[in-house]
């Protein structure tokens, strides 16, 4: 079988589309080629010989007719011949109507297409390039493109057809094919779309963008020279990221301007398969190009071979910016930047490129082709007018102004500033989605991530970029700021932008306030939360872990946690926040939320609460216990290392027992004692879904451990029970090793390392090995056999209290807090938002 669409060909990249030559020349399967035979077939008789040959062909996988010309009657005869060949896959019918009248062509196309439809041909490739059939040609193939015969189409080549308004028809056909295929239980997965030189303009581009977004299967989009302007490019740009397998993007000789280029840059980060990006002669200008280059050098594009930014009126500085990073990040990927506006800096730039040994990689072209010093961008949009027709432009200029005015916090001039560190990511369910789900997937998750960029967003201006990114993506569903630090001014700016993001589902705002004053943090958190309420989000996940905001931090999320926007909350992560007494506030808010939801006829679906290392102690634990007992939908509760003593742990056990869906439980490193363990042992039979239970370092003692093991051996889903550090002694250890090994015939692990097996350690380890090895007894060095004898539980509790206090006074839990004024200002000093000199 021939592999025309396969990537095994060296990628040949031409204006006809990538792989065009390979697809035309490399045939290993059956078929017929009449390439360039210059047949001029008018009548049936004229076509008879050719038709006979077609009919006689035993296995017609491809039929190439390029370079001949056929009329209506001849077309009918060929159509008849096609009826003998339902196996046809490649209809290579470019340049087939030279000298024909425009209105002759649609009937010919229609008769040939009808034959294929009638006999159930399923084409893989249809090539009608270089047939100047104009808009009505689109009508000629409309029925075919919407029919089952097109469901398997992978490649559609319509280069240089003068489609014009016909572009919208073609785009709508693609959508229809998608829906019809889905209805028939199939997936219409077009990979290659080529339609250069067709005057598609903005309406065609917008319609195609809609289709591409829905299809999600495109690997090549080659649409150079179509008079597409900013609006069309922006629409197309928005569709790109839905097609995660894109290899070739060729928008050469359309008009992106800065905004179109920005929009493209936002999509690029998701296109890890990209091989060719051709934006030559697209007027991306300095700032648009900067955005694109910033994304290219900051993300992984392992397959990228060619980036064409020639003819974009670029000043030298834009290229200088990437000289230091290009090769490091993109290897030998070719960067073409001929015919730009380097002016007097051409020689200088050329020298630097030579010094860095990049002359093979970065193509500056011939100095005589350089178009002189490019102007700086102030008058960018006014300048747009050195192009083509001016009616549509006036419209778009007005829109330019209006668009950003409607978004209060975004100054369009700020877009570039941020792109240095921006990472935009769309999760990619689209290509694999079954047909029925494809439409839903098209509106799927969209992540805006600034993860771990260590940026200091202090004042409003620092957050311009983040705000602009949000404004450009009001559809954002996931917003990650973790690993930066946010001040009040910057927080305000981001909050304003968030107000326009109603689809937000996930906020990962953990570790976001390093070096902040404790009094600042609640103000910022509160403002961000208010913005989400205003936007009317239905949040699924909120992660504020590792922000040492202390008790008053709890108050800052109170309003949000009690609002309608939290009804949908599934995950609340507040690990290591120094909540202390604030834990009661948080727990009570959850209780209030639950009551409000019930009153509103809804039911909460809170699945995950993570609040380790917060000094919840007894009051916090009891408050959470009450809340989760009422909510009842928990699947994970993590409250390790919280200084919770027995009454608190007992309370938690009662609350947990009312959450039959519980899967992961960590009570580790609290002072539950054997009473706490007994209470949990009572709860375990209710938790048939439980997968892991961590009671390490809880002083469960022999009594508690034995009860927990007795209950746990019966839990069908359990994978791990952790009883390390329980002060378990040898006789009972022996019993539970036997209980576990005999009670569970599966892979589930019981961890009893770091206990008090003392002299018996070796014997018990051997026993555990002998019985199947699913009990981890740990290392003898870790066994605490040397610890002194059995003290009263009360005393042990006191001992642990002391330990807790020690930790606290060491500042272990609150390490980020208590920052004094001096530190704060020092940190801030001269910290730059991004490195202007080029290293992104
Ligand atoms: C034709 O295809 C075969 C395998 O599909 C490949 O090995 C060969 O190099 C190709 N020839 C050309 C001229 O592309
Ligand atoms: C790159 O863009 C320029 C300007 O549009 C164009 O002339 C050239 O053919 C394009 N492609 C390559 C491979 O240079
Ligand atoms: C640059 O262009 C000029 C004039 O078109 C030509 O004479 C010269 O040879 C070209 N130089 C190179 C390096 O291509
Ligand atoms: C361009 O617009 C101006 C002002 O609206 C008008 O006078 C002129 O005729 C237009 N030119 C073309 C070529 O449409
Ligand atoms: C937030 O990001 C951190 C770091 O990537 C990750 O470990 C954590 O799981 C994330 N939180 C959520 C709720 O996804
Ligand atoms: C058991 O608990 C100890 C101490 O908390 C921890 O280091 C270990 O990773 C845990 N093991 C498992 C399997 O959960
Ligand atoms: C059991 O816990 C110890 C620490 O107490 C840990 O080192 C070990 O990896 C755990 N065993 C398993 C099987 O996870
Ligand atoms: C450890 O076990 C031994 C005997 O098995 C016992 O005498 C001793 O009191 C235990 N120590 C602790 C800390 O439980
Ligand atoms: C608003 C903005 O960022 N403008 C920039 C566009 O690009 C030029 C040249 O790189 C800069 O000087 C401007 O500051």
Automatic annotation (TrEMBL):
Disordered as annotated region, ranges: 363-404, 774-840
Q: Cellular component GO terms, alphabetically?
A: cytosol; nucleus; perinuclear region of cytoplasm
| Main location (coarse class) | nucleus
* Example of a GO MF term: small GTPase binding
**Which key words are in the record?**
GTPase activation, Leucine-rich repeat, Nucleus, Repeat, Signal
Compositional bias of type Acidic residues: which residue ranges?
363-389, 791-808, 816-840
Q: From which residue to which does the signal peptide run? A: 1-17
Q: Which domain of life is it from?
A: Eukaryota
Q: Which Pfam families match?
A: LRR_6
Keyword Isomerase appears in the UniProt entry: no
Cellular location(s)? Nucleus
SUPFAM superfamilies from the entry? RNI-like
Name the Gene Ontology biological process terms: nucleocytoplasmic transport
Q: Does the keyword Membrane apply?
A: no
Looking up CDD domains in the UniProt record yields: LRR_RI
Query: Per its record, how is this protein called by name?
Result: Uncharacterized protein
Q: What is the lineage of its organism?
A: Eukaryota, Metazoa, Ecdysozoa, Nematoda, Chromadorea
